[in-house]
Amino acid sequence: MAQVTRKPVRIPEGGAVREVLDRIGDKWSLLVIGTLREGPLRFGELKDAVAGISQRMLTLTLGHLVEDGLISRTAYAEVPPRVEYELTELGRTLLPMVISLAEWAMAHREEINANRTSRIRNEEDRPDER
Amino acid sequence: MAQVTRKPVRIPEGGAVREVLDRIGDKWSLLVIGTLREGPLRFGELKDAVAGISQRMLTLTLGHLVEDGLISRTAYAEVPPRVEYELTELGRTLLPMVISLAEWAMAHREEINANRTSRIRNEEDRPDER
DNA sequence: CCGTATCCTGTGGGATACTG
DNA sequence: CAGTATCCCACAGGATACGG
Question: Were both Cys, which of A103, B82, B86, B106 would link to B40 (CB 3.0–4.6 Å)?
């Protein structure tokens, strides 16, 4: 997702979709939201739960989501600092889709992989058909 | 979405979600899929319907989606070439989520924008609080 | 009309090191 | 523990021109 830098893009009305996709359609947002479905989590817990995410990206992603009002951030002034992130009302309205998407992903992963590798094999089998 | 270049990323099991998100979570895939909800469309029609997409990206996106078996491509050997794209069975199973997502986007766009701009204003009001 | 081939830039995002 | 600060570059993706 590059060069979205607020182009003119008049976009009749489906623009709203683009706009929101530019927000939650990045590499980690949906994953983070889905991870918070059970309840609040600390920074470190999220880091562990969302496998593969870097500290930097978790910070940034959380920042955006808090900014957009999808999750809330609560910092407890304790000795080892503790910060908890939790879905807001708004964030929770997004949850059903995230969960559906995740389930769809799990259910059809194999099929998609099969499709694409079979197609690749077909192309490789005919070295020069152009 | 950069450097997804098939990292090792062991990811316990939510990896399936990452994998699928890497496919349909790009800038245009969901938009294209949503646009095909009514039925088959020609290349040019898609280009017009998906506001803002470049010819190149439409070609690439369609290519991936066909590869993954989410949409089908039918070329008619006519004088001005005609090519139609249509959701496959698999692709249609994804439609409910895409539509929900789009509706959610339209419904909450304002709210999200309000959240973020109010926050930005707060920061700007205090020019030097660092 | 439907692409494909190039070229080129912006930026997403990882790695690493440092603070309160 | 929970970030911030830098550095850095692979690559998404726009613009443009050409081809069947």
Answer: B86
Total residues belonging to chain B = 130
Task: State the maximum Cα–Cα separation within chain B, in Å, rounded to a whole number.
Answer: 67
Q: Which residues of A touch B12 (CB under 8 A)?
A: 51
Q: Give the pLDDT confidence of A92-119 residue by residue, as tens digits.
A: 999 999 999 999 999 999 999 999 887 6
Cα torsion B69, B70, B76, B80 to 10°: value is -130
Q: Are the C-beta atoms of residues A26 and A60 closer than 8 Å to each other?
A: no
Q: Which residue, among A95, A124, A126, has the nearest Cα to A29 in the 3D structure? A: A95
User: Torsions phi, psi of B82, nearest 5?
Assistant: -125, 130
Which residues 21-50 on A are within 7 A of strand D at the CB atom? 42-45
